[in-house]
Amino acid sequence: MVASKRAKRVTIADVARQAGASVATVSRVLNGVDTVAPGLAERVRAAIVDLGYRPSAAAQGLARGRSGTIGVLVPDLANPYFHDIIKSVSAVARAAGSRVLVMDSNEDPAAERELTEDLLRYADGLLLCSPRMPRADLAAMAGRGAPMLVTNRQVPGLALHSITVDFFRGVMALCGHLARLGHRRVVYLEGPQRAWANDERLRALSGAEAFGLDVVSLPCGSTTDEGYAAARAALDSGATAVIAYNDFVALGVLAHFAELGVKVPDDMSLTGFDEIDMARFSAPPLTTVAVPRDRLGQIAGEALGRIMSGDEDIEPESVPVELRVRGSTGVIS
Amino acid sequence: MVASKRAKRVTIADVARQAGASVATVSRVLNGVDTVAPGLAERVRAAIVDLGYRPSAAAQGLARGRSGTIGVLVPDLANPYFHDIIKSVSAVARAAGSRVLVMDSNEDPAAERELTEDLLRYADGLLLCSPRMPRADLAAMAGRGAPMLVTNRQVPGLALHSITVDFFRGVMALCGHLARLGHRRVVYLEGPQRAWANDERLRALSGAEAFGLDVVSLPCGSTTDEGYAAARAALDSGATAVIAYNDFVALGVLAHFAELGVKVPDDMSLTGFDEIDMARFSAPPLTTVAVPRDRLGQIAGEALGRIMSGDEDIEPESVPVELRVRGSTGVIS
DNA sequence: CTGGAGCGAGAAACCGGTTTCTCACTGTTT
DNA sequence: AAACAGTGAGAAACCGGTTTCTCGCTCCAG
Q1: pTM greater than 0.85 (yes/no)
Q2: In this protein, which residues make up the domain named HTH lacI-type (chains A, B) (predicted)?
């Protein structure tokens, strides 16, 4: 034939016709209902293969009342922090016969709300990772009654399921570590303004005087570039140790320090947070706080699964972190 | 009320009833058809807001015959190589009123095929990024007749739309650069076995003798860990320069070299590939090849859009790369 | 031999939208 | 004043599945 005709979709009716069965029977075979005679089932299967039939996701979704999709919204896909979470959630979802629809809000709180609304139309359940949207928006979303779980954000007085990381303790551990090394004055390089993770770090640091630490905060960000840019100011602060918002920032600081001839940890101690892969490979390797991201993802995925099956009794969980002491921190010289 | 009854979904019929209109009219208002009297339209809009109505994605997808979703399959979400691609494609898709369904095959060719089949049921179009699946599988997928675009893989004799990166020229540029610096013997740390990107690098390197270079290859991988592990073998190869599969591998090598007291570039030159952010911040910064990933994503997104609207005449494109000379390469001492 | 239980499989209702078809009503033309 | 084109809006068909309902048939007990 000259022009292959615009291949019309193969439907369940086509399969039924070819197999000499009804659509109901084809549906039964497809869904593993065992009340179909072996011979008929075989004919149906043959027809399916023969025609290359694949059920329409939309039609199935409509008929079944659920799409088999769970949505995951992250502020930044480029942040490895979320990769392990996405991978774990995907694994859990896959085991439950669902797939994961990942979206990226680009750190934009407005887009975040919009995407959340959109995802709610597509997905059976929703996982909001580290949402930056204002409390009111979050409240509105939670009020929609859809199965939804939030990670790394707690909103007092709002009934939403959440799984968080114990950033507070992580920062405390860092403070204790630095205090033990004899540091007295430290500088904190702040993360994104709207991030709960940043709020928690600040909250913990506000109690650092208990360790005999004097903490000053500088605005910074969450990327290597921003760390690099903030390094000089950190140096000028007169502190003997830098607590970076995360490992990326720390690596940026480290790079700039190297250029400036500042020796780590002899001249200045430096800590990160999250324990990304690269943290082990810098010179010196970073003292940081390990966040069990895959565990977080797994817990979140399972909790969301329970929420979707109607279990309202999910208790908020806070996963523990672990201090990793490496070469970037030392006694003051 | 004591128990809020399991909130049934608000449907278009509910809106119609409340507004005193027909479902057809509600649909018209929703889709901006302007043949509705202003007063009626206003009542409908009020009812929509009042009831908090959101159209079901499944029903819309079924009725419209398309889901408004495009699928993107990547081998590894944790690889920043794909972030910019995903972001660009998302942007293009969003501008066209679609959303992006991202999936991760975990570098598993079998899962890749399975996920591709699955995505085809959900999405209007499909972008396969750097697929590792065997030629036969790829042929089968292409044969399904769905709008589909492949990046970073060319399969001779197979009719599939593809956008590739000119790895070949990139490697040539590296070879020329190293040759000019006086290197004669270089070692290549190979990437993943099934990756076309690796094949292309090998193909380019097989012509490196034209530059007077003697190239030996060692199996390695694509991660920092694997680079770290391969560093010693690279050292023992007797080469004066290491061409790493990508920047991650190079950073791993660099870290191990630092531990071993091998000076870069004095004792050994080192190159990466891709230009990830971190490449600028290592000590010394990496000589690498910049791949315009966002551009690749943009081109891919637009091409896929054209394919989806029935344009069969997409010519394969190869985006150019650019050599970035930094401190990790130098003349042999 | 007959009434009823059990079971396989088709007909049809249904999921929630979009879109075509049809019609009542308006205003214009001769 | 009658015929007609134009327009707004409802009824109904349709998208492609799942699931309930129903029915005919077989098998077994009474």
Answers
A1: yes
A2: 10-64
